[in-house]
Amino acid sequence: MSTHVDNAVQFADLSATTLLRFATAGSVDDGKSTLVGRLLHDSKSVLTDQLEAVEAASAKRGQDAPDLALLTDGLRAEREQGITIDVAYRYFATPRRRFILADTPGHVQYTRNMVTGASTADLALVLVDARNGVVEQTRRHAAVAALLRVPHVVLAVNKMDLVGYEETVFAAIAEEFTTYAAELGVPEITAIPISALAGDNVVEPSAHMDWYGGPTVLEHLETVPVSHDLTGCHARLPVQYVIRPQTAEHPDYRGYAGQIAAGTFRVGESVTVLPSGRISTISGIDLLGESVDVAWTPQSVTLLLDDDVDISRGDLIVPSGDAPATTQDVEATVCHVADQPLAVGHRVLLKHGTRTVKAIVKDIPSRLTLDDLSLHPHPGQLVANDIGRVKIRTAEPLPLDSYADSRRTGAFILIDPADGTTLTAGMVGESFASPEPVKADVDYDGWDF
Q1: Which one of 39, 64, 129, 335 is most buried, counting C-beta atoms within 10 A?
Q2: Burial 74-98 (b: 16+ CB within 10 A, else e)
Q3: Rounded Cα–Cα distance for residues 18 and 228 (Å)
Q4: Mean pLDDT of successive 10-residue segments in the chain (449 residues)?
Q5: How are strands ordered across the β-sheet holding 152-158?
Q6: Is residue 335 within a helix (H) or strand (E), and if so which, with residue range?
Q7: 3-state secondary structure of 158
Q8: Cα four-point dihedral sign 427, 433, 434, 438
């Protein structure tokens, strides 16, 4: 297939380019899908047949110009209603960088999808309608980005064409959002005035806003500094599978396979297996069928140890000198994503890495109020899209890192044990929602671990 224009990126050597994962967020009708479509179209990342299908669908609706939102809104219900329902992932590239884009829904009931899209993002692109300014959903998305510790946030003030490209409108919105996000601890905020429909400041600079001297959206995406080097972080290998072939060729082979979540492992290094605390030494590392001396994140490897240690799926292998503490008492900030509330006393399953254990919600010390960032003490429960603090007691000790230290090994989810529904996304340790003093323990009908 060919692109609708010659695409130099198609022939570019992308091996040396960096990768940026970013997520879009915003309220309903702020123009997220149109922005993404414009980004894909103007960066020459749309195939001819895709563009023809969009043009045909737009003409069928009686529209004069192609509706670029249809490039991302692929579900039938999304096209019929003109809204985004599910996270739409798109992959594209320019000569300067490769991109993985998650276009997330704007409806409040789909905030859980934004949590999914932003959980691995290096940058969150938050849209607001220039006519409406910062609204509650904007604050919620800023809070989620801060909670997930997304290092870069872009405020795209869209539909500037509908407010006469007025600088004062943009400045007021940018100031309000920047002040709010800074209070949440967002480390870097960049505001850009755009019109996704007209293409102003998306890929090409706008001819209507000479008062703006900053980058376009694509220029900022191409140049924002990102680092995926986790080799210097705390080394962690969640065990996914124990390999024990017991064949004539490998009668005594016992390997512990998994993807390195962070850091580096070396042959000869002393390691500790958690939660048991057993210590051994790495005698070998198998990578893609070959023996290597060193392996690092995100490689999938098999570790061989000097000793026959009792290790199973869910255990965590770490350097002996850099082991996290194990605990049955988990304090974390969470975003509740299920329709049914999460209440004090609920029995849940907690999934951390490859390990799943029984747990009880012992307390909900506070819930975040998005309007003024105040904390409502001891709400008793969290409902869908609430952000708050929880205290959880697990049936077995877990080796937990702080989410501030590791976005991978400091995260967990709570699961409904009855049907497997994901209830809550949790981040271990402190966040902008500081914990309140917890209440006295209560009797939980035999689940008092």
Answers
A1: 39
A2: eeeebeeeebbebbbebebbbebbe
A3: 9
A4: 39 59 85 82 66 62 62 47 58 90 72 77 94 91 87 95 97 95 89 93 94 96 81 87 85 92 94 95 94 93 94 95 93 91 96 95 91 85 91 95 87 95 90 42 43
A5: 88-93, 97-103, 18-26, 123-129, 152-158, 189-193
A6: strand 326-336
A7: strand
A8: negative
Host H or E run for residue 316:
strand 316-319
pLDDT of residue 187: 84
Phi and psi, residue 202, nearest 5°: -90, -65
Cα–Cα nearest to 137, from 81, 84, 68: 84
Q: What are the Cα distances from residue 161, in Å, to 24, 153, 170, 406, 407? A: 21, 23, 11, 41, 39
Residue type, 98: R
Q: How far is CA 44 from CA 2, 51, 70, 95, in A?
A: 11, 11, 16, 11
Spell 249-285 as b/e; 16+ CB within 10 A means b: eeeeebbbbbebbbbbbebebebbbbbeeeebebebb
Q: What is the distance of C-alpha 143 from the center of its chain?
A: 13
User: In the numeric block, which tokens belong to residue 47?
Assistant: 């195939």
Q: Which two structure tokens, joined as six digits, stand for 356?
A: 């799943």
Chain-centre distance for alpha carbon 85:
17
Contact at 8 Å (CB) between 77 and 85?
Answer: yes
Identity of the residue numbered 301: V
Paired strand residues for 238: 316
Residue 278 phi, psi dihedral angles, 5° rounding: -65, 140
The Cα-based distances of 251 to 224, 239, 243, 248, 292 in angstroms read 52, 21, 12, 5, 21
8 A C-beta contact, residue 192 and residue 206 = no
In angstroms, the Cα distances linking 371 to 177, 283, 375 are 12, 55, 11
Instruction: Provide the 3-class DSSP secondary structure of residue 218.
Output: helix
Six-digit token pair at 251? 């009668």
H or E stretch covering 233:
none
Q: Is the peptide bond before 298 cis (omega within 30 degrees of 0)?
A: yes
